[in-house]
Specification:
350 residues, GroES-like_sf, metal-binding, EC 1.1.1.2, single chain, 11 helices, globular, alpha/beta, alcohol dehydrogenase (NADP(+)), Quinone Oxidoreductase, Chain A, domain 1, six-stranded parallel β-sheet, seven-stranded mixed β-sheet, zinc
């Protein structure tokens, strides 16, 4: 039986800085290669807050955030070959790309030369705005849909579609593993997944956080060491220690100080995205042939690889499940770092 969903309940920001409120948004008919996903859980990412509040530039309103989506296939188009009704699936930060550029052909759709189509706060090929996962259903091309393995609960899997792949991709690219020393800066929604994944890859993991208050949590997640960046002695004691430092924080850092922690030929990789610009003295790079880099989520194949890896190693996100009417409160708590470690919306409450 075909399900014709034309409008669905959702929570949207009607304007920049406005509280999110319940509304309805349109969904396109299920096309030949589309799946209709009944959303069960959607994670709240800090980038949702940045975009809903115009922190990264002018947004498209009303805006339905949410790009950490987990649910079940409710309908499959006649040409769909990868999924069937009832399959557990997920959607991440983008729902389409040009499929023709060098990046797309290499499986790096997240760097699509034409920009790709964001899951929300974007425009599709027809120029219509995209609406994200703070809703009950979404229609997505099967080629941009992920299979969630049975070994992970859908609630714990939802944040993996952004937080998980955001950390897995640079850890894999810079070959974190046995014999490598990895530092994760920040122990929040992104950082806690970095610790779990780096530990599972076999790296020696250090957490760098502002104070010592999260030390026991970090060690329980798999960290081998923990240091407070609020202590200036930390940067002296750890100078030239790490092969890879990954910063997950969304505030500007003293990049020179953190590059001082990187050994020769090592890398400082930024996955957090501050709203403010940062500065750098280039001597911090020159002395040691160091790399200052960025990384943004992952392609479809790599995201599926990450999900399978997490299922194999029993890794899910640390979550707090909330009802949809608590979204605005959750936003304030995220800003205050008052969550361990990711809010997840129960879509049945939308």
């Amino acid at each position: 039986m075909t399900t014709h969903v034309t409008t669905v309940p959702a929570y949207a920001a009607p304007a920049a800085h406005a509280p999110l409120e319940r509304t309805t948004v349109p969904r396109r008919p299920v096309g030949r290669h589309d799946v209709l996903i009944a959303i069960e859980y959607t994670g709240i990412c800090h980038s949702d807050i940045h975009q809903a509040r115009d922190g990264w530039g002018k947004g498209i309103y009303p805006m339905v955030p949410g790009h950490e989506i987990a649910g079940v296939v409710a309908e499959a188009g006649p040409g769909v070959t990868k999924f069937r009704v009832g399959d557990r699936v997920g959607v991440g930060c983008f729902v389409d790309s040009c499929r023709e550029c060098d990046h797309c052909l290499r499986g790096l759709e997240q760097y699509c030369a034409r920009g790709g189509t964001a899951t929300y706060n974007g425009r599709d090929e027809n120029g219509e705005p995209t609406y994200g996962g703070y809703s009950t259903h979404i229609v997505v091309d099967e080629n941009y849909t992920l299979r969630i393995p049975d070994g992970i609960g859908l609630d714990e899997a939802a944040p993996l579609l952004c937080a998980g792949i955001t950390l897995y991709s640079p850890l894999a690219h810079w070959q974190a593993g046995p014999g490598k020393k990895v530092a994760v800066v920040g122990l929040g929604g992104l950082g806690h997944m970095g610790v779990k994944i780096a530990h599972a890859l076999g790296a020696e993991v250090t957490v760098l956080s502002r104070s010592l208050k999260k030390r026991e949590e970090a060690l329980a997640l798999g960290a081998d060491h923990y240091y407070a960046t609020g202590d200036p002695e930390t940067f002296t004691a750890l100078a030239g220690t790490f092969d890879l430092v990954i910063s997950t924080v969304s505030a500007p850092l003293d990049l020179g100080a953190y590059l001082g922690l990187v050994r020769t030929d090592g890398a400082l990789v930024n996955v957090g995205a501050p709203e403010e610009p940062v500065t750098l003295n280039l001597f911090s790079l020159i002395g040691g042939r160091k790399t200052l880099a960025g990384s943004m989520i992952g392609g479809i194949a790599e995201t599926q690889e990450m999900l399978d890896f997490c299922a194999t190693h029993g890794l899910g996100a640390g979550i707090e499940v909330i009802a949809a009417d608590k979204i605005n409160e959750a936003y304030e708590r995220v800003i205050a770092s008052d969550v361990r470690y990711r809010f997840v919306i129960d879509a049945s409450t939308i």
